[in-house]
Amino acid sequence: MKLLLFITLLLPLSVFAQEQEAAGQKPEAPCSSAGYRQFDFWIGDWNVSSGEEPAGTNSIQSIHNGCALKENWQGAGEGGISGSSFNIYDRAKGRWHQTWVDGSGTLLQLDGGLVDGVMVLGGARPARDGNGMVQHRISWTPNPDGTVRQLWEASKDEGGSWTVLFDGLYTRAAEN
To answer: What is the residue-averaged pLDDT of the chain?
Structure first.
């Protein structure tokens, strides 16, 4: 049954690719549009600092034929929190989506896109104390020197005021 379902789903894609090739067209890679490349500046292995103190390390990889980014974070010091995210460009909506999970049980789901060259993603989740919702806004700014600034802010008053949760500077880790 699974094989039949697989063939049923795969066959139309295969036929479409063969029709393009027969017409002299090269089949377009699934995630080749410019939207998928907007967050590529974040790809790499990074040392992250905050206030000139080590905050952790982060490894961002392009996965699934360039269709998504996978993040693996490890906070600095003993007991530093670990976390991961998956990031994908939604071609139909023209927006980026991030799903973050970490070792404290946090789930954060964000959506957004490029704003004047800065990746800005936002979303809401219930407050830890169970009292209302908290808006989250995270921005990644690529700097001319190759570093990236990540600014994570939160608002308990629907964006009326924002509190900085994390202000980090990503510096590329030395190659081994």
So the answer is: 88
